[in-house]
Amino acid sequence: MIVLKNIINYLFGNVLTKAIGFLSIPIYLSFLSVEEFGELSYFNSLISISTIVVSGFIYSSISRYYYESEREQEFNDFFVSNVCFQLLFTLLICVFLYVVNIYYSFENGFYIFLVLFLSFMKVVNTTYFHIYQPRGESRKILVRQLFESLMIFTTSYLFLYGDFFSGEMNIIYSQVFVFSALALFIFFDVSRYLEIITFKLSWNNLKRCFFYFKEYSLFLWLSTMLSTVIYQVDKIYVKSFLSDIDMGLYGIAFSIAFFIKVFSVSLFSAFTPVLMQLYKVDIKAALNNLFLIRLMVFIPVALISLFSFEIIYFLPNGESYSGAKTILPILAFSFWIDTLSSSIINFLSFRKKTNKLVLPLIFSCVFYLFLFYIIKPNINDTSLMFLLCCNVSFFGLWLSSKMRFFLKKDIVFIIFVFIILLFDDEVFFVKALVSLFLFLMFFCFYKYSSSCT
User: Fold this and answer.
1) CB 172 within 8 A of CB 111
2) DSSP summary character for residue 426
3) Which of 36, 123, 418, 426 is the most exposed place for a label (fewest CB within 10 A)?
């Protein structure tokens, strides 16, 4: 019953949080031009990459240590040491990146400072999140997530409505305001709860932090950095190739795709505790149930994605964004493969085998760069999403080749989805090409996995 209660709280907390972010997109579009939204998307990509780089995923070892520690006070000491280690690590990397940027590019110094500042604030918030997660205090997590999302949404709207700054800077400064306020609250709350002010940092605790970082966080950090590069760095690199309009359209489509992707993964992650318990008893039953859960997640996500682009037409300047709709058929595949990859990553992490993620991700990045080089002369927003789609498929299918329970069902489902999508004549060539690519990839990996068993 306790597990079910926590699942419901995590589920509603994640889903409602992502729903607020998703609903904020039309609000932003009604105030911003296509070019301004492209700049905002570019800024958010920089934050995503910077947050992953500076975090080190050190906080992921906190939850693991909680289940292995024997005394509550022992966990509290380890948590405080981990917080100090995390913040020092983050601050040093932020300072290093900022100094490097000043040395090479003076004109973008303040812009990069905002990126690093928000990255640091996000790491502080995420670290705080992990004090409640292992204790099962999911209600506090739910309230905190909703409060943070509502604050960002409200302040962004007020800044845009008041037009205090120019264009997308209203949203950027609203994020700075919210995360600064939350970080101040976190400092007082954590210092009261764990007595950080009177805590003496011990060398043994720091050694334990380093050991658990190496054991549980290092390879997860490396793999996440690589996957973040796959998702985000293309927007930074192609900024010099795309026009402002194309960059804006790509940013809109990518933002909607990203929110729906995180929405689907959040739904899936809510069931992870139950699957992990079942995994200890019967791995085959766990994997079969995992497919059904992913299917239940995919159906509402696919429906939301179908209607999201239609809503854009009702905005005051909705016709300007209509070009973003051409990439819709590619999104369905990306969502499904993301849940496939996420599920395998969770199982590998649970079995302490996250080092197995590094090799597939390296090959995936090389594969992405190869495709980018081929398609670069005719690059646009649709071809970029096609690149992303192909690359995510390569990574997900590489992982799934090691766990054959996924493949047979996934082959049938993916082919069924894309047969339906092909009935729409819009961008037929891209859909047909993606469908053919999917079929060949699944066939090759299925043959490969069969030969390995």
Assistant:
1) no
2) T
3) 426
